[in-house]
Amino acid sequence: MNMEDNTVESQTQVSVIFLYSDHLKKPAFESIHQELEADRRAILEKLSEKYRICSHWVVSTNQDLLSFVQAFQSDESDIVILLYQTQVEELHIQELVAAVGKKPLVTWCYLPWKRAPKPLSYEEYLRASGAASMFVAFYELRKRSVPYLPVFGSIQDADLLHKLDAFIQSARVKTQLRRANIAVLEHTGVKTDEIFKEFQELGITLKEVHLTEYQEEVTKVSEDEVAEYVQQLREHVPDLMVTIPTLQLGAKLSVALRRVAFQNNLDVLALPAHSAEIRKALKICPGLPPEWSDNPHTIYLTTLDPGAILSSVLLRLVTGQVGFLFKAWFWDKARNILVGGHTGLQFPNISAPKLSLVCGDYYCNRADPDGGVQLEFIAKPGRVTMLQMEYRSDGWKALITSGMCLESELWVEGLPQAVIRPDCTIDHYLDVVSATGSGRNWVMIYGSVIDELKALFELMQIPFDIIQQ
Q1: What is the tens place of the pLDDT at every residue in 275-291?
Q2: Could you count the other beta carbons within 10 Å of the beta carbon of residue 189?
């Protein structure tokens, strides 16, 4: 899977099942029958503006149902929309659920208008009578523990279309998540079996890259490749606070890391932070970005925290962005800000302009400013969403918050960092993270995607909390 190619709505295949009363096929209801057909055409036309309509079905008789069940076995849709156009004599929930299987399901409680006209003829009432059957269908679906997204209203309802977009994107993310190619660098003392097991619950199989494989790639990096990387680095970060030999070694480690990621076609490559084992094998820890592209092929993380790995993958799939690893270091209640970040391989393209430099790896070797290499920068301003995934005894749980990343001078020497003003007070933030048992690492992206994350976690049946005032 190539995660940067995620969001192509036209590739999403949708099947729509319309149910309405066979009673309305009688000659006495010819006019309303024609209006129902016009409603169906309008719905399909609107949906086809964004999605590919893989199939659509009209079920009003038992024979219609039988034909649908038989034909749907070969259906290739990603999403199924169940829409009761009118009140029906039989819901057919058991047969419909069995046919749909594990495909993500949207239940549309449909109305043919945004504002109800008054007065209504009996025929017009029938045209809008599907809600009664849909409400009963909700009960039947819940009784069978079938996950679904309920939406309410007409095809002109912008909120409905937004929820539908978020759900369809979530269904696509859920499918693509299972295909994510994630690897961790082996490390003595890390219980990779536990990490692998936690991801297997989501249908993801992690890989392990051996340190010897990485070492071998380091030896293959040529002087020309190092020179090319250093030139590219200087174009982005002109200020250097390390010697040329250390810079060249850091460049060699980053080029080799990129090779490992590309050769294994990895979406994510996670390394242990502050690893004495890596320093012993390679002299310093990798700290420079392996890729400088605005849309890099691979996410590189300097942490083996399963929650940070999963958060990074989910946010990349939802937004297309590479997230910023954020560990809250301290706060200032008077300013209502959090200051934090993370050492190591941070995505550099979110840096505020003219506020970055190459410095030593202070955490690993503070006594020797030339004993390592990494970027020092502060993240650019803008609205952000932050996600934290944690694995508990009862499974995965999500914590979401949002706020503004503020324009600021560098706050802490020698580290990639961000200054966040959350959309709540610091007291409320601290109360929630202490009550929920917050983990170590947030992953931050730019923009507001809380609705999209809510839809995703509801679909995946992962419990979540949102920190907002």
Answers
A1: 888 988 998 989 999 99
A2: 7
Give residue-wise pLDDT tens across range 187-243. Answer: 766 667 778 888 998 989 899 999 999 999 999 999 999 999 999 998 888 788 888
Question: Which amino acid is residue 183, in one-letter code?
Answer: A
Exposure string for 443-468, b = 16+ CB within 10 A, e = fewer: bbbbeebbebbbbbbbbbebebbebe
Provide the CATH number for the domain around residue 283: 3.20.14
> What does the chain come to in residues?
469
Contact 287, 250 (CB under 8 A): yes
Structure token digits, residue 14? 């949708």
Do 128 and 207 belong together in one domain?
Answer: no
Domain termination residue (choose one: 143, 158, 177):
177
Give the chain's domain count. 2
- Give the range of the structural domain holding residue 430, as residue numbers without chain letter: 182-467
Residue 126 sits in the same domain as residue 239 = no
- pLDDT tier, 439 (very low <50, low <70, confident <90, very high otherwise): confident
223 torsion bin: left (phi>0), alpha (psi -120 to 50), beta (else): alpha
Going from the C-alpha of 181 to that of each of 87, 176, 205, the distances in angstroms are 46, 10, 8
DSSP at 9: G
Q: Which helix (H) or strand (E) holds 387?
A: strand 382-392
3-class secondary structure, 60: coil
Question: Do 124 and 151 belong together in one domain?
Answer: yes
Pairing of strands 382-392, 395-405: antiparallel
